[in-house]
Amino acid sequence: MILLSPNCADLARHFPAAQQIEIKHFPDAENYVRVPECTGSAFLVHRCYPQQDVSLVQLFLALGALRDAGAESATAVVPYLPYARQDKRVRSVEAISAQAVCRLLKAAGADALVTFDCHFLKKPGVFEYAGISINNLTMRDALASHLKSRVKNPMLISPDEGARYFVEGENGSAFQKTRGGYKERGAIYRAVSGMKMPFDVAGKDVLILDDIISTGGTMTKAIKACINGGASSVRCGATHGLFIGDTAAALKRAGAAEIVCSNTVASEFSGLSIAELLNGVLE
Ligand code: R5P
Questions:
Q1: Distance, CA of 2 to CA of 114 (rounded, Å)
Q2: In order along the chain (283 residues), what is the average pLDDT of each group of 10 residues?
Q3: pTM of the predicted protein model
Q4: Is the CB of 248 under 6 A from ligand 1?
Q5: Is the CB of 211 under 6 A from ligand 1?
């Protein structure tokens, strides 16, 4: 049985047999969650961005309710997994948020997690992580084929080694990105400190693919380096487009002729749908 959260109503036409779960709020803003009667295997599709913390609590409540309703197994389908970017410690003793979230999903009642381009896995496939089975789907083929169809002389580039799997099968190359130490400007972050370009983009229509565009720091630096390197054009694509602040404008100012993302996160750039890939695994 496929269940859709209210924040996935846009996917309903792709899953005609899916049932809805109910999410409301009590007067103090705490979450109220109700699920349909359910037996067999339950797949619950719920976005956890924006409002990551609230959405995660909603997911935990829904998973528990599904198990109470009689679901024999429950799979959390979270298109963009929040807290996935800290899977190791840079300083002692930081919380390893990726691990904590996966443990909590398991404890809440999930046997498995389906997600897309999970930051810490860095490749598609099925993995065991923090006690839960994760099926990591990828939008890389959809992003690559969309962007390739727009240009004559494509060259695929990833902005760092972590995203190399986006361009591997396409004879692509990767920037060598380095990050500095922590900085604080309202939020804590680690800025990109360097982007080495061990490849030639002169005359190419460069297509830069990454898992996430968040503040756009990584993508902006990659775009500028390619323009300075003589690229004919630069387009960029990412599975998850968070576009914090004026990121989209910064990418365009840097020279991006096109920006495309999937709808794991809703934005004006989420032109590619995850529905087809999800349909293949939700059964
Ligand atoms: C980093 O390893 C990721 O693959 C992305 O490049 C990064 O998370 C993007 O973040 P931002 O847009 O803030 O540079």
A1: 13
A2: 98 97 98 96 98 98 97 98 96 97 98 98 98 98 98 98 96 95 90 94 98 97 98 98 98 98 98 97 86
A3: 0.97
A4: no
A5: yes
